[in-house]
Amino acid sequence: MGNDKENNIADSRMLEEINNFYRERERIRDAIGKIGGIQYSKADTVVNILFIILVVGFFSVELVFKPLPTTVSIEIGVFLVSMKIVWMIHANQKFNHFVFWVLNSLEFRMNTATHMLEYLEKKIDLLQK
What we know:
The two termini are 30 Å apart. This protein has helices spanning 2-34, 42-65, 70-128. It is mostly helical and 129 residues long. It is elongated, with a radius of gyration of 28 Å. The chain folds into two domains: 1-34; 40-128.
């Protein structure tokens, strides 16, 4: 009967750890989405739409009305594309920083678990002797 009680306690601890894992996984997904990971933030969507409207609108006006010389139009187009590339590099840098932070955190946790395991192994060896 004592063995069943121990099994129930172990099962409840395991379920609690699984639930903690799922909660942390969702928290990490949300954080990655906020900084430019898989999900796009509202700011990214607004910048993308604004960029598309500017580029398509500018080139449409230039093709129909030709208000500026061709070289100026090309320079403005290159400038707009360059600004978009800078925005993408910035978003990628934020994401890479977050990935580094997550990996560093995981390494710290693994090192802590390794030290704890080594400590427990030493204690078990002492108890067995």
